[in-house]
Model the fold of this input.
Amino acid sequence: MERLEGSCIIGQSGGPTAVINASVLGCVEAALRSDCIRKVYGAAHGITGVLNDRLYDLTIEDPAELARIKYTPSAILGSCRYKLADFMTDDTDYLRLLDAFRRYDVRYFFYVGGNDSMDTCSKISAFLAQNDYACRIIGIPKTIDNDLVLTDHCPGYGSAAKYVATTCMEVSLDAKVYNNGSVTVLEIMGRNAGWLTAASALACRKGLGPDLIYLPEIPFDLADFIADTARAHERQRDVVVVVSEGIRDKNGDYISSYFSDISRNKDDFGHAQMGGLAANLANFAHTKIGVKARGIELSLLQRCAAHVASATDIEEAYMAGRAAFEAAEAGAGDKMVAFTRADGPAYSCKTTLADLVDVANAEKRVPREWINEAGNGLLQPFVEYALPLIQGETALETEDGLPRFAKLKKIAAREV
Amino acid sequence: MERLEGSCIIGQSGGPTAVINASVLGCVEAALRSDCIRKVYGAAHGITGVLNDRLYDLTIEDPAELARIKYTPSAILGSCRYKLADFMTDDTDYLRLLDAFRRYDVRYFFYVGGNDSMDTCSKISAFLAQNDYACRIIGIPKTIDNDLVLTDHCPGYGSAAKYVATTCMEVSLDAKVYNNGSVTVLEIMGRNAGWLTAASALACRKGLGPDLIYLPEIPFDLADFIADTARAHERQRDVVVVVSEGIRDKNGDYISSYFSDISRNKDDFGHAQMGGLAANLANFAHTKIGVKARGIELSLLQRCAAHVASATDIEEAYMAGRAAFEAAEAGAGDKMVAFTRADGPAYSCKTTLADLVDVANAEKRVPREWINEAGNGLLQPFVEYALPLIQGETALETEDGLPRFAKLKKIAAREV
Done:
């Protein structure tokens, strides 16, 4: 494949994770080492930074401070939720992107995100190819939801899963401390895929997990929930229940919508905004079973808890970023970095490439055979899948008893 | 003081913390070493375990497993919220306690708890003295609320403060990632005292703290909240606000009651149950300012997050437990262990004793002069007070990527 010289842009998109910056670092450090690359730019707030000419020159960041982003949560360059139109109907944004790419001599574009971001990458890649502008576009997967297809798992998931499992252990200890009858409902992120909710099952191995786990993969029935919970309450008084924010009934209606007294907004991708489900289910259980009940929504905490990130996840996120650059340098484009897990008892994981178009807008859900028959718990194959992903502790520095997160200078790039 | 031989009971009461078990360990290990002590009993669920003859024989626990409770959150022996009557009007419970103490030859009673628990200790101590039953009763302070008087601070506070400050840093990074205008409201425990809410200010030193902090010490005004938040939003788009669950208006009415559509229960001590305030304030800000808003209630997580406990807090909690036993062995009774901070720039802390009756039912609040004039932020003296308490990381073991918490055998005690 032809050697391609020029600059590169890296951007971040969608909901942040504890390790999305590790992927940026892997990509940026590889780019800084490459003699094909003149400048390494960071896009402020993802693709909107390219559209609005807000690029940072990462070449002039202090390398030691830059290295700290590996352990810094959220999206250090800023994120966005911006959906590109189909360029066949409206090419306004695409023309602006092409103009920016030309002005900054951008030949490599890396985008860290979920399936919506892969859709963005796929569209830009197609547009640039159609306009004969040589630019290699590689997506780097990122999502606590773990719902991307064609990859064994997604960077970001392991850390969120570790947070969820750790928190479930701690909350279980706390919620059962009085032994006078209680229901605690924990609500976990994941609209359509229950991977993160399922991670609570890792706590069960320690005898400190939830008693019931409801994933969006299984139609949720309020009467079954009450019957399951009442049975558990009878057996052991204090009950911990974990639900996905996205549980739906057999008609596909969100359970959260049953209780909604505030009209729900939709985000820019048309996803319904969730919230309040845990408190509402707890209140419902209180009414029906007559026990004290409490709802806890893990909310943003589960996607930004870098202090308890998985070392495996951090290293794999970094590896995904580096692999993205190396693949592009070697000639690949229009691809997403994916993970393949080696066969055999010992866990190991290597990177491969998937076609962007195959990843964009598709979703991978928890297989039915990994969920118990009653649809309220996980089975051993899930544990074997997820447990390797939460191994190891972060090397995050502390300073004065608190995390020492990276702070970049973010100096505006100048056109070449 | 006379040498007193017999057995001892230790019990835990009130809301658990990340380090309440460290205090139990400090006390139990000292008792196990003492030649005054025949048996060391743990009361199942605090004073209710003594009343219901549910005692564990801690003498026969595996010492290595017992040592792990130092890093295990929640109350390992179980907790209770049980208020003793005044024995002048109803001595039923007291007679049962006295009977149990006689049957088990209990000459030392240690109770780890907050001000309600110190009230319990004080009453039992008075009753036993009146009945000429020699028994030394020592309270060991414990509360994430940090609201006990006559002690510089309380075991449990440092760890909860470290969790709150760490979480505020992580949430601030996440909540500001889109930079398209948002208000994030975090709700933190603390009915009357704002110590834990104030701990969010420790994150501000890192440039990642909340923009506004509202404590229950300052009357809360919805119009001021909206004006403050709108101003911060205008300045920087994304705003993070921290509120105490216990904020009240100038008439003393809880702000949470403004929004309440579910009748609030009261707990056994007559405290109003809180909840939903963050979401309601967020929704109110959304309506008034017209920005996206989200409420996050830290809920139980802030009192059980042992994985991010403060080493200083853990060691001091252990020290308080040991000091309780040593004081009792040396002849003290009817006292609570308290902390005194040494003068001078370097932090150090030693134990003293306070009279139970002076601690029971009193509350220490954040001094007005540590809060800024506008009543929406903390000043440097608070930071100097709180920062030493969050120093150091826990030595909690991990196993398979998750905490390895203690699991005791809890073998029922037999009468002597």
The domain at 6-155+306-362+393-403 of chain B is CATH 3.40.50.450 (Rossmann fold). Residues 261-275 of chain B have pLDDT under 50 and may be disordered.
